[in-house]
Amino acid sequence: MQTQSDADLLSASAALVDAAMAAFHPPLPLAVAFSGGADSSALLLACHARWPGWVRAIHVHHGLQAAADDFQKHCEQLCAQHGIALKVCAIDARNAQGQSPEDAARQGRYEALDGAAQQDWFSVDGVALEPVRSLALAQHADDQVETLLLALSRGAGVAGLAAMPSHWQRAQLEWFRPLLAIPGRVLRDWLCLRGVGWVEDPTNADQAYTRNRIRAQLLPVLEQVFPQFRSTFARSSAHCAQASELLDEQAAVDLQVVGTPPHIKPLQALTSVRLGNVLRYWLRSIYGTTPTAAQLSQLMQQIGVCTTRGHRIHIKVGRGFVERRGLTLDWYNS
């Protein structure tokens, strides 16, 4: 039997979700990445309640476990019940050699969401719908904390410690994470208040995955020691995001000076911190690759001692190699 205190908690949870949705202003129509789990179910139904007729759902079938077919059926039933247009995308999420299973699934999922969102859409009655302009993901405050802790464990810089952005652009779409300030339990309360069920991914309980160990073992301790850790960690990530943006602005200015491709002589005139910053920016913005700390250090050292015409630079960096070509640097992966 539900007590008054239980009812008050559910009402407080509902108010938090309603406040997050009131602050969410995506260009419509909006597609929601819908796994069938509690988080994406709450996001989909909250969006549908606010913008009826303007919200679509995309379900990615990873094909990695037997329960995946049941996930799809649940998504189809819920969307049919609420009259929400749904697309199902089947992907091969098996990881390549040297790639983690999580990274393979994430990359496959984003590519599938990109493709599905930009296809033609039809209502459950077969009526043509307007093209999707935005896409929303259901990561919440606990996911953000897990991302930050993983970044800390890997010795990430400010870009990594910025964790997950709440808004960005990709493939001509506006992408959003409107629930990053909401704890996961609040979303479950919101669904319970409405009598809505969801599916539980059995892998969420598998503590072979680092994220699951963080969720099961670290977050409860943080809750006891630092009750406001979600909001304070979020502020730290926001500070890191601002610092990362500032570093990128400085790197863009320095890249104009050293040129594209970068010339070795003006690179040598930079301080070590600006040299490392502009090299990271060049590799990421032009080639989409990121050096390890050891690779960047080796490259910076070689640039510093490159004072003769015959000095050779050929260093493994990211997914390819940086080498000297005359007066400049080049990167290739062929």
Features:
single chain, 334 residues, alpha/beta, Rossmann fold, Uridine Diphospho-n-acetylenolpyruvylglucosamine Reductase, domain 3, 2 domains, six-stranded mixed β-sheet, three-stranded antiparallel β-sheet, 12 helices, 11 strands, elongated, ATP-binding, tRNA processing, cytoplasm, tRNA(Ile)-lysidine synthase, TilS/TtcA_N
Q: Helical percent range?
A: 40-55%
Q: What gross morphology would you assign?
A: elongated
CATH superfamily of the largest domain: HUPs
CATH architecture of the largest domain: 3-Layer(aba) Sandwich
Question: CA-to-CA gap between the ends?
Answer: 66 Å
Structural class: alpha/beta
Give the helices and strands as they follow along the chain. HEHEHEHEEEHHEEHHHHHHEEE
Overall tally of structural domains: 2
Count every beta strand, where a strand is a DSSP E run of 2 or more residues.
11
Largest sheet: 6 strands, mixed
- Quickly name the level 1 CATH class of the largest domain: Alpha Beta
Strand order of the largest sheet: 3-2-1-6-8-7
CATH topology of the largest domain: the name is: Rossmann fold
Mean pLDDT equals 91
Poorly predicted tracts of residues = none
Radius of gyration: 23 Å
Number of helical stretches of at least 4 residues: 12
Layout of helices and strands:
Layout: H1 4-22, E1 30-33, H2 38-50, E2 55-61, H3 68-82, E3 85-90, H4 101-117, E4 121-122, E5 128-129, E6 134-136, H5 141-153, H6 158-161, E7 167-170, E8 173-176, H7 184-193, H8 210-225, H9 229-258, H10 264-268, H11 272-287, H12 293-304, E9 314-317, E10 320-325, E11 328-332
Parallel strand pairs: 1-2, 1-6, 2-3, 6-8
Antiparallel strand pairs: 4-5, 7-8, 9-10, 10-11
Keywords: ATP-binding, Cytoplasm, Ligase, Nucleotide-binding, tRNA processing
Domain tRNA(Ile)-lysidine synthase substrate-binding: 264-316
GO cellular component, one term: cytoplasm
